Amino acid sequence: MPSSTPSATSSAAFTKPATSAVQRQRVSSQPQRPKTSSSLVGQKSITTSSRPQTTTTCSATTLNCEAIENKIRKNIQHSWTGILKACQEKDVSKLGEIPVSDFLDIAEKFNLDLSEAEIKQITTKYDLNKNGRFAYYNFLQSCILLLKPQESSLLQRVIIQKPQKPMSPGPQSLSFFSAMLRIQPQILRCWRPMKRTFKSCDESHTGLLPIADFRQILHEYSINLTEEELFNILEYYDKTLSSKISYNDFLRAFIQ
């Protein structure tokens, strides 16, 4: 390499036109040029700034999972108790997640009939902590409970009226999912007469009931909540601590 004076080097550094991030990344990837500590720092920042593409891929994967979940929903609803039990046996730490390999074994055991591409998408979506583990509680509640509002067609028959004031839900904790999944079979057996009882107690027709009345009606239909289960359900449905609960929102979570 021809030697150059310090003044010439500094002059060239200031007169050289600015290169783009892509060009700098290509130059920095060449193995024959030794890197100083400052150049390594620059390379790290370039690598970090070039990650929006990964985010786009993940969001597209999440959107595609709706079709997969709709495909296996009926199968899940018929055998979710067995799936939940199998997952809980693998979840020694009680964290609501298990290794992806364990979930694949369970999915095969219960004949969920997922292709390799569908498995990749759904395991990516429910690897919430990006640690190679599958959040089975979130997966089951998405297939069994209808906690997110869905758009309905104008020709579709409305089973349960939407509230005039949209609900602002609270946290969806693991204990909340557990309580909702436990009472789901009982709710499905008696939700129609329960709905009529809720409405008969709602004299002001607001769609809201005091917590004591709500719990008493559940008790009448042999649905007994522990104090912890009631607390977690109220934490979700009564985020503003109004001491009232929207019974339509509650029932809609179970009626698909």
UniProtKB/TrEMBL annotation:
Domain EF-hand: 194-254
MF GO annotations: calcium ion binding
Biased composition annotated in UniProt, kind: Low complexity: 1-34, 45-54
One Pfam entry name: EF-hand_7
Compositional bias per record (Polar residues), positions renumbered to this chain: 35-44
Region (Disordered): 1-54
Any single GO CC term annotated in Swiss-Prot or TrEMBL for this entry: nucleoplasm
Name of the protein in question: EFCB6 protein
Annotated organism of origin: Cochlearius cochlearius
Lineage, opening ranks: Eukaryota, Metazoa, Chordata, Craniata, Vertebrata
Encoding gene per record: Efcab6
